Amino acid sequence: MKKSMKKLAGLGLTLAMAAALTACGGGDKTTETTAGKAAETAAAGETTAGSTAEGTYKLGAIGPITGSTAIYGQAVKNGAELAVNEINAAGGIGGVQIEYNYQDDEGDTEKAVNAYNTLKDWDMQMLVGTVTSAPCIAVGAESSNDNMFQLTPSGSAVDCAKFDNQFRVCFSDPNQGAASAQYIGEHKLATKIAIIYDSSDVYSSGIHDKFLSEAANQGLEIVADEAFTADNNTNFSVQIQKAQDSGAELVFLPIYYSQASLILAQAKQMGFETQFFGCDGLDGLLTVENFDTTLAEDVMLLTPFAADAQDDLTVKFVTAYQEKYGEIPNQFAADAYDAVYAIKAAAEKGGVTPDMDASTICDILKVSMTEISINGLTGENMKWSADGEPDKAPKAVKIVDGVYTAM
């Protein structure tokens, strides 16, 4: 069920605890913090921090570091690790160090639940994850029963924030669809739009459906709406031909980068030259093996993070990430980095202490997450509503000369 009766149960206790814990911290004023003020560089060595006199916070994380979506999970693992190291180097959460334990779910729901149980056996107190939507939903059913706080960096399906213990950093699929239509319309990128999407995938179809409903509000004409499925996702000649024949000025691709790379290559072979616009699933396009990256020139995607941005926080993050991991971070790394800093801000706002069990911490964070505001890599003055959704302005990037460039 949605966040309703469950949230009411124990609400009096939660509010009483939150009030008592925040009374000596300066009242109800919203906490403002900047992710990245913790330290200029993280301490070298192991991710897991040593014990202190006050104990440690046990922060678990789940995502794929093997399998077809490993590029996403590895980035989340690294981004969260970088934040943990910075926070620990600067004194931790309220002076207490963080222990960080990342488990591989291979993008599989059953393995994600197994990973969650492994972290529970480790006495996890808070969870960053999971990375992809289906495993996030599966783990959410377990974390809800346990009243375990769960913050996904990138699980964008609606049900990834179904229960009152679940929050997310990224936009939901419907929000991405609406924001894409709004961005295309407001910036007058095109008026005649073709769509190619995966009707068998909850991520793709969720974005597609909301894009369709918002397109009319933006004066966009959908001249072709072509689907494929997971059973037929290598030959896109029919969909491309229909888009070409429709006179589309822009093709919207609410899909993952692997299929997008094939569509771009086949469109080139068919002589179809137009604009292409996608969402965060296209992040990773430039890393596809044997893909001619010149085919991605001028491809646009709605994403909250551009590694070439020149603000101080992004420059600092990209520099530290490259030094530690030898590559340029993508938006998933940035989402995870912001997730850890959001947990720090909410824990400090609510007066969480490491001797509390996971359920007590969860009850506090459900409230304090709605009281913080952070300046992160993926948005300024990011806030969260009680339904777990982030409030931040959408951004878009364009691939220019083989790199993501802020639009």
Question: How would you sum up this structure, described in words?
Answer:
With 407 residues, this protein is α/β, with parallel strands linked by helices. Helices cover 39% and strands 19% of the residues. The chain contains 12 helices and 16 strands.
How would you summarize this macromolecular structure in one to three sentences?
The chain has helices spanning 5-8, 11-22, 70-89, 109-121, 133-146, 173-186, 202-215, 237-245, 257-269, 312-325, 331-350, 358-368; strands at 31-34, 56-63, 97-104, 126-128, 149-152, 166-168, 192-198, 221-228, 250-253, 275-278, 300-302, 372-376, 379-384, 390-391, 396-400, 403-406. By secondary structure, it is α/β, with parallel strands linked by helices.
Outline the secondary-structure elements.
Elements (H helix, E strand, L loop, with lengths): L4 H4 L2 H12 L8 E4 L21 E8 L6 H20 L7 E8 L4 H13 L4 E3 L4 H14 L2 E4 L13 E3 L4 H14 L5 E7 L3 H14 L5 E8 L8 H9 L4 E4 L3 H13 L5 E4 L21 E3 L9 H14 L5 H20 L7 H11 L3 E5 L2 E6 L5 E2 L4 E5 L2 E4 L1
Parallel strand pairs: 1-12, 2-3, 2-4, 4-5, 5-6, 7-8, 7-9, 9-10, 10-11
Antiparallel strand pairs: 11-15, 12-13, 13-14, 15-16
Instruction: Indicate how many domains the architecture comprises.
Output: 2
The CATH superfamily of the largest domain turns out to be Response regulator
Secondary-structure element order, N to C: HHEEHEHEHEEHEHEHEHEEHHHEEEEE
The biggest beta sheet is recorded as: 7 strands, mixed
The total count of strands amounts to 16
